[in-house]
């Protein structure tokens, strides 16, 4: 299960879910949006408000509360297909010990590879699979299996 809004006000919700279903079943989702000054902040999608909380501390608090994975979304890049916030991914991956799913900005397989290299355990690629061609027509497609094999075999060989 994935929890976002409920965990904003009550991190014990994550703990209770993890105790009941196991940490492996609990994913916390954190939307991160840049302020007009460029600072990353927690964004509450349900209310449309940017919160004053430091996003890394919020993520660490939820991971410590029992989340088995963290999904961190760069709201400003979501659907733009112009690349991911690699600095945010790097910072997030070094701040928590649970697997990190990165979201927001994938427009090519190179973006996926860069996100994994920056520390993501997995990458969400919604718009990349849906919007195709020069007019961004809706055409659900997926990379060929060989492309994915090449992508990740190259990434694995570059790992320290």
Class of secondary structure makeup: alpha/beta
Mean pLDDT: 91
Bin the strand percentage. Answer: 15-25%
**CATH-derived topology:** TIM Barrel
How many domain modules? 1
CATH class reads Alpha Beta
Uncertain segments are: none
Gross geometry: globular
If you had to describe this structure to a student in words, what would you say it looks like?
By secondary structure, the protein is α/β, with parallel strands linked by helices. The protein has one domain (2-158): Aldolase class I (TIM Barrel). Helix content is 40%, strand content 21%. It is built from seven helices and nine strands, in the order βααβββαβαβαβαββα. It has helices at residues 5-9, 12-21, 55-64, 86-95, 109-118, 126-130, 145-158; strands at 2-3, 27-34, 40-44, 49-50, 69-74, 100-103, 122-123, 131-132, 137-138. The strands form two sheets. Strands 1, 2, 3, 4, 5, 6 and 7 form a seven-stranded mixed beta sheet that branches. A two-stranded antiparallel sheet has the order 8-9. Strand 6 (100-103), helix 5 and strand 7 form a beta-alpha-beta unit. Helix 5 (109-118) runs parallel beside helix 7. The longest helix has 14 residues, at 145-158. The mean pLDDT is 91.
Descriptive key words:
160 residues, alpha/beta, TIM Barrel, two-stranded antiparallel sheet, 9 strands, globular
């Amino acid at each position: 299960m994935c929890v976002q809004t409920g965990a904003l006000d009550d991190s014990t919700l994550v703990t209770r879910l993890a105790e009941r279903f196991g940490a492996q079943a609990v994913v916390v989702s954190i939307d991160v949006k840049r302020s007009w000054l460029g600072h990353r902040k927690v964004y509450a999608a349900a209310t449309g408000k940017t919160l004053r909380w430091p996003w890394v501390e919020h993520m660490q608090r939820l991971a410590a509360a029992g989340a088995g994975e963290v999904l961190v979304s760069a709201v400003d890049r979501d659907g733009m297909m112009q690349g991911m916030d690699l600095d945010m991914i790097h910072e997030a991956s070094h701040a928590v010990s649970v697997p990190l799913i990165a979201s927001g900005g994938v427009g090519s397989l190179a973006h996926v590879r860069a996100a994994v290299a920056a520390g993501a355990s997995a990458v969400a690629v919604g718009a990349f699979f849906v919007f195709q061609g020069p007019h961004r027509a809706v055409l659900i497609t997926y990379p060929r299996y060989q492309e994915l094999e090449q992508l990740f075999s190259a990434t694995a060989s570059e790992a320290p």
